[in-house]
Amino acid sequence: MLQLGDVRLESRLLIGSAQYPSPQLMQEAIRASGAQVVTVSLRRQSPASGGGNDFWSLLSSLQLQVLPNTAGCHSVKEAVTTAQMARELFNTRWIKLEVIGDDYNLQPDPFRLLEATRELIAQGFEVFPYCTDDLVLCERLVEAGCRILMPWGAPIGTGKGLLNPYALRTLRERLPRITLVVDAGIGLPSHACRAFELGFDAVLLNTAVAQASDPVAMARAMKHACIAGRLAYEAGAMPERDLARPSTPTLGTPFWQT
Fold first, then answer.
1. What is the mean pLDDT of the chain?
2. What pLDDT does 191 receive?
3. Which residues are known to be catalytic?
4. Which residues in 144-181 are b (16+ Cβ under 10 Å) and which e?
5. pLDDT for res 45
6. DSSP single-letter state for residue 48
7. Nearest to residue 70, comparing CAs of 154, 128, 10, 121?
8. pLDDT exceeds cutoff 80 at 51
9. Residue 57 and residue 60: Cα distance in Å, rounded?
10. 236 CB-near residues (< 8 Å, 6+ apart)
11. Which of 61, 105, 179, 215 is most buried, taking the most CB atoms under 10 A from its CB?
């Protein structure tokens, strides 16, 4: 079971709702993934004015926990205002906080992210900050009141996997009581599996499924990769060795002479 804020979930896969070839494929892929949390962006639709009604209707039919995000925001004011709108529209305290600092690689702005986090937590939000794998930034976000962190594996939409396993492993070791979710960069089921093998609690992905040739099949593959990676972490991996060691030792092995 995954404890995400005050909610307990069976699935450790969180999934996005953007970039699918069609709304119907989005719906089928999300169901195939087994995810119980779906992210949505207010900036891609206009629900307050009636825009995107078909999209919201499809999303509601999935009966999942909605995690609104502040995608596309570049300032503290933008992000806070978007979060406030999301709380009203979706009746949720949850917000995936994105404050972009660089338009080329969509890297989060650590300074504005921390400022927005402090303000939103003061307003009663459960903040899921999308951040880099920088240990000091993550420690400051925790000090600000975050119970959940969402460091990237690689820049959004690149599909490059976990570019810095050392940094991610360090976060897990130094923040043992914090829920850690790898967000962004997952391109293959093996990337998701690796995140769990490092001890992460969940992964959030979108592009890897939405832009696959067969989104439904890829969603199913990601579901099983997450299960396999978590089971491997819980089982405890054998230590790596520099020298070979036979699985069947010769000591004590009976032999016969002819």
1. 91
2. 98
3. 96
4. bebbbbbbbbbbbbbbebbeeeeebbebbeebeebbbb
5. 52
6. G
7. 128
8. no
9. 5
10. none
11. 215
